């Protein structure tokens, strides 16, 4: 699972078991092991269909629709939540794009021959998971304003995170990094704005 900082270019298929850098062997081996284990879920058509739908909903349309509807159904509280979500979305998108270009980590289906993409990737690189970053961030802001939504948002966000690995698009470390960054940015936006 070798990846390094480089200028973006077209993805190239790497070996099924990429070489590991010194000092990263235990982490990288564990990351690859869990990627392969979770990707076994792709053997079940119904699970792939469910996770592909969840992943598609996490592309952004659902979040943007929520931002548009909240002011209409929740008045001033909805406006405040939507504005924070918009600010968070812009900050997250900027940081996400910078990190993707900096890391240039190949996606699992590119780096490992035994992993295949079960749905289309939105961009070329793997680190961090943008779907997870946005899902965690937006969910935290929404739950801060509307705590009852946690019953729906927490399982939905967990499914988005799981879908990214099962569908062969991310490593677990991509998802964990996305979740951590999303949470940090959400709490920052809630504290500052």
Automatic annotation (TrEMBL):
Keywords from the UniProt entry: Cell membrane, Hydrolase, Membrane, Transmembrane, Transmembrane helix
InterPro entries found in the cross-reference section: PAP2/HPO, PAP2/HPO_sf
CDD domains: PAP2_like
Domain named Phosphatidic acid phosphatase type 2/haloperoxidase: residues: 80-190
Entry's transmembrane regions: 46-65, 77-99, 148-169, 175-192
Record membrane topology: Multi-pass membrane protein
Alphabetical list of Gene3D superfamilies matching this protein: Phosphatidic acid phosphatase type 2/haloperoxidase
Region (Disordered): 1-20
Subcellular location field: Cell membrane
Protein name: Phosphatase PAP2 family protein
Species for this entry: Caldimonas mangrovi
